[in-house]
Structure formats: C-alpha cells, structure tokens
Specification:
This protein has helices at 2-30, 33-41, 48-58, 74-77, 80-84, 102-137, 142-156, 159-173, 189-219, 222-229, 234-245, 247-263, 266-271, 277-287, 290-318. The protein has 325 residues and is mostly helical. Helix 1 packs antiparallel against helix 15 (290-318) and helix 6 (102-137) packs antiparallel against helix 12 (247-263). The protein is globular. The N and C termini lie close together (11 Å).
C-alpha cells in the first residue's frame, strides 16, 4: 500500500513541474513583462521609463532564466523564474501586483468557497444517485422515460439561467432568501441556501443520467441475475450489490473534483457576491493582477493533480486488487 502511494506521488511530481514551466512560459515568454507593465498601467501612450519603473517595483526587471551579470549561484537565483516560479512549489505565492499577500487572501477566501462547495457536493451526490436508482428501479416504464426527458431538459439549460432565474423568483419575488451577499458565522447560512439549491438543481440532469448509465451496466451482469434468482428483491439488489460495485466510477467522479471545490465557482461567486476564491480570481483578471492569476492557475493545477492521487488511493479501498497494478 505504501509503495503504491509513493509510486503515485512520484508520477505526480513531473506533471506539477510541467504545469509550472508551462505557466511560466505563458506569463513571461508569450506575454512579456513589458506587455504586462503596459496593460497594468492602462495608458495608451506609456513612456519607457514608466514601464521600467513598474517592472522594477514588481521584480519583473530581472532576466528570465539566467543572469549573466550576477556572481556564482546568483546567476540563476536572481532571475524571474527563481523569484516567481520556484516558490510556488512551496506554496509561497508572494505578493500580488497591488502589494497584498496572496497566501493570506487565499486562507481568508477559501472558507466561503468551501461553505458553498461542500454542501453542493454532498446534497447533489445524494440527489443524483437517488434519482438514478429510481430510474433504474422503474426502468422500461413511463416514469423512467419522463425522468430521462426531464434530465435532458435540465442539462440543456444554461447555468446562468438557473442563477438569474433563482435570484429573481426565489430572492426577489418570494423574498425567501437574500439575492446576494455574505456574512460570517451562522448568519452566512441564509446567503448560502440559494447558491447551493441552484448548484444542485443545475447538476441533476447530467449527474443523474451519468449514474443511471453506471447502474444500468451493472444490472445486466450475471451476478445480478444470480442474486435475483436467489430471491433478493430489486431494491436489495440495487443497494447491496449494484451500488457497491459501482463505487470505483463514483469515486472517480467525486474524489477528482474535491480539490476543485477549494477553488470555488467563478460564475456562482461573482453573481452572488460571495468573497471566495472564484470571485478572487475573476477580480484579479479584471484588475490584470498577473501575480494572483498565475498563483491561482498553479494552485488549481496542483489541487487537480492531488485529486487524481486521492482517486488512485481511494481505488485501493474500493477494490484491493488495484494495489497490485
């Protein structure tokens, strides 16, 4: 088991290194520091002196990879790559272009993102699996056909429609919950109800159909017919056998998105004015704060790779035979 986990960690490190290098190329080679300075200054006619001053203030006036003018080991430490990219491996994000500590901002904003994402995941998972089991239980009936049609309709509607429609109908007309905003402690619950409900409803169409496909593949196998021949009811077969044997694909879908929940929802948080990491990223893009955008891109990639590791490890609990692969 330990060797399996170590092997998966060793596989992940080259991926993380590749993401870091690719991010560096996109932000400092394709989009040069001079371009960054001109976009940040926001003037049509920016003097060269203003560009150089901005680069010096933010540490972008150093060579990219190799500093010929420096001595000994400073030839590679006094470079943009070392200053801006190496620290990311230690999750040292440094300061934003506006002078704020990025790590501190992330620690503060991760909780609003998680307060939406975790309930949405748990409730959505329970609802989707329940709906999928219901469709399989009543397969080849009008109830299943109607459920499939409803799922197709739900997944065909844009998420923006759910957000705007939910804000207008539930928040503005019925006045059941606030339209937008956020608060700390238990007072935040009233602001989270509507985003969670919209997240769950908007995901039922695709989620329920996907789980239904998994369950239908299992109910056609020989062990299901054997269990039915022994006298087990349809409900017992679904919950005791089918659901258990579909745990690996379910874990694949759930565990892989767990780290992405940390990053928050870009659209949801922006529309509901929730100070999470999603809105943090959107605000940084609007302000053209490249340090924050670069840090969030790397953090998102690192968390996604970590999610894949969690998925591999979770397989060993669902099926011990995976440890041998």
């Amino acid at each position: 088991m330990i060797q399996y986990i170590i092997r998966r960690f060793l596989y992940a490190f080259p991926l993380l290194m590749g993401v870091n290098i690719l991010t560096f190329i996109l932000f400092f080679v394709v989009n040069s520091p001079d371009d960054m300075a001109r976009m940040q200054l926001g003037h049509k006619h920016v003097t060269e002196q203003a560009v150089q001053n901005w680069k010096h203030q933010h540490g972008y006036d150093l060579p990219l990879l190799w500093n010929e003018q420096a001595e000994s080991d400073k030839k590679w430490t006094e470079t943009i790559f070392y200053k801006k990219s190496i620290g990311l491996f230690l999750f040292d994000f440094g300061l934003s272009d506006s002078g704020r500590n990025i790590a501190t901002d992330i620690k503060q904003r991760m909780w609003p993102s998680l307060s939406i994402a975790i309930p949405s995941l748990i409730v959505g998972l329970l609802v989707n699996i329940s709906v999928a089991l219901m469709m399989v239980l009543f397969r080849n009936s009008y109830l299943e056909f109607s459920s499939i049609v409803l799922c197709v309709i739900l997944m065909s509607i844009s998420s923006l429609f759910y957000i705007i429609g939910g804000q207008f109908f539930i928040g503005k007309l019925l006045r059941l919950v606030p339209v937008s905003g956020y608060d700390t402690g238990l007072s935040a619950i009233k602001f989270l109800i509507l985003p969670v409900v919209i997240s769950v409803v908007s995901g039922i169409g695709s989620g329920a159909r996907w789980y239904r496909t998994l369950f239908l593949e299992e109910v056609e196998k020989d062990y299901v017919r054997t269990a039915q021949a022994k006298g087990l009811t349809e409900t017992q077969v679904l919950f005791k056998h089918v659901l258990k044997n579909t745990m690996i694909p379910i874990l694949t879908g759930v565990v892989a998105i767990l780290p992405l929940l940390f990053m928050g929802s870009l659209i949801m948080e922006s529309f509901f004015s929730i100070p999470g990491l999603g809105s943090y990223t959107i605000d940084a893009i609007n302000r053209q704060d490249f340090a924050i955008v670069r840090s969030m891109v790397f953090l998102g990639s690192a968390l996604y790779i970590f999610g894949l590791l969690l998925t591999d490890i979770s397989y060993t609990f669902a099926d011990p035979r995976v440890r041998l692969s």
